[in-house]
Amino acid sequence: MPSLAAKFNSILWEQDRVRIGDTEIALHDFTAATPSTDACLLYKTKFLMDQYARFFSQREPHAFRNILEVGIWGYGSVVLWNELLRPEKYVAIDINKSTRNSGFESYVGRNEIAHKVKTLWEFDQGDKTKLQNLCDAEFPNGLDLVIDDGSHLYRYTRPCLEALLPRLNEGGLYIIEDWAWEHWKSYDSLLHPWATEESLTKLVHELVCTAGSANELIQDIYVCKGFVAIQRGGLRVPSVNGFKLDTYSQRRRFKFLRSAIFPFLPSILGVKRQLKKLSSWG
Q: pTM here?
């Protein structure tokens, strides 16, 4: 079986498409108002995929048997990850209404994978109960990889993570793409539709704090420009449906005392020295 490094290196980037072996995926035309329905479209850049290549090149392909992707759009990423990772089960969800794509239908039929590659539309990633029911039905043995390229907003991404992270098998990966949009110049405008939205920077900070806590929920965390990857540790979560991230993030309980007392400490010590001085005169 070829290594992941070899598979990523085999991706051929052309002006308007990428090729992986005999499979061809069109690159999205960023000037187009709506995606084409005649071909699978990939909404990713070579810059992002090079980051993935560096990250995944150190990992074995057999580790990713069960994959859930959030965000389908032009079907290109479903084809891409299926070609690279060859999972036993691949389910992708999207909040938008279903759009038929003849390119994707041809790909599924040609490779005879309708039994293991499934797309679900009008599926809200912030709906914990729906996600939990989906995992019970499709992934009874747990997940090995989650790729969240969905809303990119904190209010939807965090509940999605709380529903799925405890269902990751030990060593499994939870990837969130485009976490850093708050730090990109094009989003720095009061007129931007996301101007009042909480970004994913807050969630990444919460995950780093959880990874640093004295438990094995998160084994490792990897942050780069294009995505953040969380590797699941071996900690068993008592109730996967009642999981709350805050429960596993340890913080000092008396941190507030530092700001409450320290400003007055010099004055307190000064009074103590004066009293000691007066008592010595007595």
A: 0.87
CA distance to 180, 230, 251, per residue, from 183 (Å)? 6, 21, 26
Could you list the residue range(s) of the whole structural domain that residue 277 is in? Answer: 255-282
Q: Are strands 117-120 and 12-13 parallel, antiparallel or unpaired?
A: unpaired
Number of structural domains the chain divides into: 2
pLDDT band at 3 (very low <50, low <70, confident <90, very high): confident
For 24, other C-beta atoms within 10 Å of its C-beta total: 16
Q: What is the DSSP letter of 43?
A: -
Q: Residue holding tokens 């020295």?
A: 273
Q: What whole-number distance in Å separates Cα of residue 26 and Cα of residue 255?
A: 53
Picking from 212, 221, 219, the residue whose alpha carbon sits closest to that of residue 171 is 219
Contact (Cβ atoms closer than 8 angstroms) between residue 80 and residue 13: no
What's the CA gap between 72 and 261, in Å, rounded?
53
Q: What is the pLDDT of residues 22-62, one digit of tens each?
A: 999 999 876 555 555 678 999 999 999 999 999 988 777 66
In this structure, are 144 and 280 located in the same domain? no
Question: Do 263 and 165 share a structural domain?
Answer: no
3-state helix, strand, coil split of the chain in percent (to 5) is 40, 20, 40
Calpha distance 112→271 (Å, rounded):
83
